[in-house]
Amino acid sequence: MESARARLPIVYVDAVPVRVDGHGNVTEVGMLLRVAPDGSISRMVVSGRVLFGERVRDALLRHCEKDLGPVALPRIPVDPSPFTLVEYFPDPDRSGFYDPRQHAVSLAFVVPVDGDCQPTQQALDLAWFSPEEAVSPAVRQQMTSGHDRLIRLALAHVGQLP
Amino acid sequence: MESARARLPIVYVDAVPVRVDGHGNVTEVGMLLRVAPDGSISRMVVSGRVLFGERVRDALLRHCEKDLGPVALPRIPVDPSPFTLVEYFPDPDRSGFYDPRQHAVSLAFVVPVDGDCQPTQQALDLAWFSPEEAVSPAVRQQMTSGHDRLIRLALAHVGQLP
Amino acid sequence: MESARARLPIVYVDAVPVRVDGHGNVTEVGMLLRVAPDGSISRMVVSGRVLFGERVRDALLRHCEKDLGPVALPRIPVDPSPFTLVEYFPDPDRSGFYDPRQHAVSLAFVVPVDGDCQPTQQALDLAWFSPEEAVSPAVRQQMTSGHDRLIRLALAHVGQLP
Amino acid sequence: MESARARLPIVYVDAVPVRVDGHGNVTEVGMLLRVAPDGSISRMVVSGRVLFGERVRDALLRHCEKDLGPVALPRIPVDPSPFTLVEYFPDPDRSGFYDPRQHAVSLAFVVPVDGDCQPTQQALDLAWFSPEEAVSPAVRQQMTSGHDRLIRLALAHVGQLP
To answer: What structural domains and CATH numbers belong to chain B?
Structure first.
């Protein structure tokens, strides 16, 4: 894996968990508090690798369940295409999305979750923010690696960018 | 309304109801049997007008509830933009989508439904078809006005066109 | 038309003109200076009505040529679906997009233009802004009716929201 | 590379070259005749790997120029997200998209080309087909690996699936 990471872009998925009302309006965005690839403790979305032989939507479900717990009830989108691409590079200036470990091409999805979310494994915390809070300076300064920009792109995609 | 219909394009929504498995794969497409605008009895998707002062997603929810019943539990998409535009014209050759009553610009969405569907009001029946059945000649010949093509566009959008 | 406007949502198109480099990156956003529907002199995107019997993409081309001049060479997108919906209401608080004259459902597209743009007819001026300038407070305060938000949604769609 | 291919999904881009009229309507689809990964001589779209450190849209431009020649003048889309994902697997039944060499996650784009196309390198030929021809049995039987389905998905995306 280490040698592959030095030679090939790695396929990732990023999931922005959201709460949605009955009319399809996004009311809240979920963010994990965890150790980012750059070593900082940071607010982040669900993110992880697609395995050899794995379908992208199976990877999306697996990472949502791993990070949000087994009863989060994520609704995997019916559209297989991501709402945006997030290109992480070891050079922080290449695209604005930064991962010191690797070049990753991440397929980003907005994932409504209906159930109870219990952050598991490496996450310290999961908090929900209104669209206004999610793009506020107070929350943005808790994010690194370009994840604050990813949140804005996700909110724009759902028509809720303040 | 009659005089407006002769002078202005009318805003519509079309909803393609689908059953989805836990991984986001579309497993079935729902189609109503009803009297089409051209007078034929036809397999159709959910379709209707956006009212003055109404948000598009509220119209989408209203028509899904009206045509699929109050416990269909439609999941209105978080993305406000339609997956395609359906331009209905009184001239059947203009775009391939036909409505003898009007020029309608319809915003088309794929809408997963989780609950029990009970077709109400004008529909004679609601039946569910696998993607293969939905594009088969037997089902296509039950559709008029271009709705068979709309089904293929919807299945392509979700990556399930056979 | 006046009586229809009081009873029906009107179909509109909004076009965000952009300059693009050879790799598909948006480098500049074009904005007209014109009298907005609310009477203010405002920075705006190309916007106009779809006529009875007109295809949406023909309306998009017509308004681009009318507002940007005959040699702007707009590239109408191959995807018929808009990147977002802009729902203008006479009530400024309904959606954040405001038009005192009507309820309009506008299909919004990003339109690369290759040629020389010469603002025609009602526009006082056409200016080009980098993505950073386009979302700056100085430019945003020249925009009304929610057009500043539309610019941010367009830049997010093309991955260039700062 | 060989050992990575046995352990990791590889990032690919697929480009469906199209001719477009001034209104954004796709009039023709381009297909190369070349040796497919499965050894057959097959009609195919432009396809290739994203390199370590390379932006996705730079890879898209590079493969278009390599396969269509230096004066094809491809218009790389402004939207960074693909219109669909093509998941190629060594098992032909896994997704319907087949590559005996590897598991590839391919980002698929429709790319209008304005210039002269001269197929270079490994391609034997480049031919242009109307949407009707492109989905006809005669052309479909010249395609392997699921590329016939990719053409249908691309035509559906641009609203031109017959």
So the answer is: 2-157 (3.90.79.10)
